[in-house]
Structure formats: structure tokens, C-alpha cells
Amino acid sequence: MSGAADTSGMELVARIREASNATFLAELDGNEVVYKPVAGEKPLWDFPDGTLAGREVSAFLVSEAFGWHVVPPTWLGDGPLGRGMVQRWQDVDPDQDAVDVVPADQAEQPGVRTVLEAIDEHDRPVTLVHEDTAALRRMAVFDVVVNNADRKGGHVLAMPDGHRYGVDHGLTFHVEHKLRTVLWGWVGEALTEDELAGIDRVTAALHGDLGEALTEHLTVDEIDNLEARCAALSAVGSFPPPAGYGSAVPWPLF
To answer: Which of 72, 88, 171, 227 has the most other CB atoms within 10 Å of its CB?
Structure first.
């Protein structure tokens, strides 16, 4: 799935208006997919033009190397509006919230991690929280490795079976530190053996099929920095704290 796929039969169903770039719900071979044409990507000052679709595909490839399936199946294809990212649509469980903003007096609950405290538009204290699960921990590790600059709460999809998918990975793999995420609940805690093993799998794959596939979408420096982040995270062995001078969380949070 690293290259272009046959998407000649794709039909647009609706535009997803909440997205910052042109994003469509489409139908392909009887399945619903998300389609983001390269032509609909808005220029950014810090990411090269026309590269976001390839970064989304790269995120999927790294997710598969981890073995955790954090990212839904994602590939490049030629749709009605030209070449773009295609990703299998996921039906989430509306009764589950992996990330949420709750009244401050409801933040201290079993199985919940606090990220930050704030005041809402009605001057009421609120708290950004996320669940404390193995699935979300894996996503947090994944975000560090791919240098995800945009892990909003709405980019975490809670599936009925407890699996958690991450979506919207166009702002990844920058050579500079860009990590902005709502998943800061484990800062300083040791990585598990499973999490360290996942990082090792990515490192090994970078010297094989993964490394070769990523050259279609990323620069040599971006791939080298990906490997360096794996090495640094493995060496430290714990969830890193926020770093740099920019915001540690994306805006808006959802």
C-alpha cells in the first residue's frame, strides 16, 4: 500500500467540512473511505507543499511496522480530484470518549489521566483528560516516533472493541521537534516491554522494506531523524516531557 492504488471507481459522497484541508467521504468498491486530494492541501510555512498525503501514508507504514495498527489502512490513489490520500473509514463508538474535557471536579477518576487544566468560555474550571489504556499508550509512543504535530482529541477514534485508531497524520516526520499532542498523561513513566519491542521493530524495518517504502514520501533527512527518535526514545526508556519553545498541545484541542 505504499504507492498509488486503483481508485478509478471512487465516487464522492460528501465533503467533511470540519477538516482544515479538502477532505471527502467517498465510496470505493462498496466501502466508505476518506479521500484527501493533494490539490486541496493548504500551504504551510513549515511543511513542504504537496507532501501531506505522503506523510499520512508514511504514518500508516510506520504504524504497521510497530505491529499495533494505530493508523487505519491508508494508501495513495487517483480520485475524482486527482492524486491523494485514501484511508478506510472507521465507524466509532459514540458512547466512548478516549479524550475529553470535563468539569474540574470530575477529573479524578479511575482509569483517567489528567493533561491540563483550563477555564472554559463560561469561566468554569475544566480539565483535559484521556483514558489510561494500553491502546492509547501505544498511540502516544507512535506520536513521539513520527513527531506528530497535530494529535487533537478528535483525531483519536474510539472503536467498539476497545481499539483506538489515530487519524490525520499529515503533520508528521518533520526534522525539527514538532510534537504537539493531547496525550501527555504518562510523562516520565517507564515504557513497557511491549512498547520498547515495538520501537525495536520499527528500527529494524527502517533497514529493510519500511526504509525503502518511505523514500517515496519522505526525504533522507526525515527518515534519518525518524530512526534517531526511535533510538533516543528506546535509550531513555520513558515517555518524554514536552520540549522546545512552542505549544505542547495542538490548537484547537479537538
So the answer is: 171
**Within 13 Å of residue 114, how many CA atoms lie on the same side as its CB?**
13
SS3 state at 108: coil
**pLDDT at residue 3, rounded to an integer:** 47
Of 234, 172, 180, 178, give the one whose Cα is nearest residue 202.
234
C-alpha distances in angstroms, 44 versus 51, 57, 93, 215, 234?
Answer: 10, 19, 33, 22, 31
Q: C-alpha angle with apex 99: 137 to 45, nearest 5 degrees?
A: 85
> In the prediction, which pLDDT does 6 show?
64
Residue 171, pLDDT > 50, answer yes
pTM above 0.90, yes or no: yes
Q: How far is CA 126 from the centre of its chain?
A: 25
Give me the torsion for CA of 76, 82, 87, 88, rounded to 10°.
-120
CB atoms within 10 A of CB 160: 11
Taking the C-alpha atoms of residue 131 and residue 97, their distance in angstroms, rounded to an integer, is 8
The span from the CA of 165 to the CA of 182, in Å, is 15
Span 205-213, average pLDDT: 97
Cα→Cα distances 201→57, 64, 75, 130, 147, Å? 18, 10, 21, 27, 17
Side chain identity at residue 130, one-letter code: H
Cβ atoms of 78 and 145 within 8 Å: the answer is no
Farthest CA pair distance, the chain: 54
pLDDT at 5: 61
